[in-house]
Every structure is written in C-alpha cells, then in structure tokens.
Design brief:
10 helices; 7-stranded mixed sheet; alpha/beta
C-alpha cells in the first residue's frame, strides 16, 4: 500500500530532506554587508561572512609583558590601514600569552584612533580547517573598498595535510597573490607551523631532503613579521594581575592578592596572561564584583 505523503510523519520527513538539500546546495554569490559590523567569521560551508556584533577582546592597555611585539604589530597594522606597505604577521610562542588577544586589541585600537587618511579595518576570522577555502574568501574581498585583516587563530598543520599549499599560494606564491586590501595574521604555538616529526619524516623519505624540508619551512617565510611570545616571569605575571585589579577596581589586600595569585599559578603549572585572567575572574567572583 503506498505511503500517505500527507501524514504528519511523512511531512516531517520531507521537511528534513528539504532542509538537508538546502544545506548541501551551493551558496549564491552574495556580497557581505560590511557596514553591519567591524568583525566577521568566515563560514566555508556556505561561503558566507557572518557579522560579529560584539568581539570578545581585551583592551590594549591590559596586555602587559608584551610591549615590544605589541608596538610592532600596532605599527604594522597602522601602516596597512593608511594604505602603506605592511607585512603578514605570524604571532608564535607560549600558550596564554595574549597572541590572539593582541590581534583583536590592535584591530580595535587602530579603528578607534585611526588618522583621517586611514580606512576602517574589518577583522575576519577564518578557522584552521577552512584554510583550503582561503582563495574563495580572497576573491570575495579583492574588489571591496574596505581593508581587511584575515585572522587565523592556532594555525598549524599535521602530517598528510596539504592545505598549507593554499595558504602559501594566497600569501605570495599564486598568480593573483594577496589582494592589496587584505593582510593575513595568524597565531601558532609553533614557529614553523609544522611539527618537528613531520619535517623530519619529509627529510628522511624525500629524494632530495633539502628541497622537501625547504618547501615546508618556506610557509613561515611568507610571513614578513615574526613576533615571538615567551613565558612571563613572576614579576611580569604579577604586573598583569595588578593591572587587572586596578582597571577593574577590585578592592582587596594587595599582599593577599599577591599570595593567592602566585598559588593559583603554581597549582596550574604556568604563569601567563590567560592564567592571570582566570585568577582575576575567580577573585572578582569571590568579591561579588561583576566584570
């Protein structure tokens, strides 16, 4: 007996099938509304840019212990906003020391203090797993009058991953290359973006080991600006802590805060900006202070 396609069960099934087909269908070539926000996230599946109304960021003056790299990235970004030559940047090094926070803070700072000859900057985040679609994103941005920082957080590549070739081509090596109105910033725990065992394996199996390893390492060479982030000292860690305390107006005995902050870092086995912020959230919660 034929199924009743008008039954509630059949209608629900047909709706699920239609929704699935709609998700799989190629997205239309629609231009993003860049007036909607200053930051966007690139969704490769739909080839679309989603606006981010409120960016999760830390104010520039709260980023302590990274003064040199902070100033370098700010200067590079300011030149780019004014239409002057600027470099792609790789922020590499210790976890929790403010690499991604610095990118977002610099973006906000340049927009807030930009000179008359600078255009507003748009920040676009691309996820690591979507790097292969970077050429599609570049095509969308190339003819737009805005200037864009394309940002990839925690960028690295594993064995058998060839998507790094798309990144190389976009940064410098392709026929079109990087658009003049786009700069690429990435953060990574690795200076060369690839694990040591992957590079060693390439060296041992290649017909010409030198050329094989050269191709892998040359990916990092596409970034003209390398900014290193290193573990902070105890004094730098406490400077970060009290910077937050003063900024947020947390009222407590400073000697007690110092002792508790050091104990917090010891129990986590690390001193970093991230560890400091986690302690501050705990302290503010205990003091009943909203932040």
């Amino acid at each position: 007996m034929p199924a009743d396609l008008t039954s509630p069960e059949s209608m629900a099934l047909l709706k699920r099938i239609a929704d699935a087909l709609e998700r799989l269908a190629p997205a239309g070539d629609t231009q993003a509304d860049f007036a909607a926000a200053d930051a966007f996230v690139w969704y490769a599946a739909g080839r679309r840019l989603a606006p981010v109304p409120k960016v999760n960021r830390v104010e520039m003056n709260l980023l302590r212990g990274i003064d040199r790299v902070r100033d370098q990235l700010a200067e590079n970004t300011s030149r780019f906003a004014r239409g002057l030559p600027a470099n792609n940047a790789l922020l590499w090094g210790a976890r929790g020391m403010g690499k991604s926070s610095l990118v977002k803070a610099v973006h906000a700072e340049i927009n807030a203090t930009k000179p008359a000859d600078a255009r507003p900057l748009k920040l676009i985040e691309i996820h690591r797993e979507d790097i292969e679609t970077l050429p599609d994103l570049m095509g969308l941005l190339r003819s737009d009058p805005h200037r864009f920082i394309v940002f990839c957080d925690d960028l690295s590549f594993d064995a058998d991953d060839t998507s790094y070739k798309s990144l190389k081509a976009v940064l410098e090596g392709g026929i079109e290359g990087r658009p003049d109105n786009v700069i690429f910033y990435a953060t990574s725990n690795r200076r060369h973006l690839l694990p040591r065992d992957m590079m060693d394996n390439e060296r041992s199996t290649a017909i010409n080991p030198g050329e094989a390893i050269e191709e892998k390492v040359s990916l990092s060479d596409r970034f003209g600006l390398w900014l290193g982030f290193h573990k902070c000292s105890q004094d730098e860690y406490l400077d970060i802590i009290f910077g937050y305390v003063d900024h947020l107006g947390l009222k407590a005995d400073r000697d007690t805060i110092r002792a508790e902050a050091l104990e917090w870092a010891t129990t986590r086995g690390a001193r970093s900006g991230r560890t400091a912020w986690q302690f501050i959230q705990d302290l503010a919660g205990r003091l009943g202070k909203a932040i």
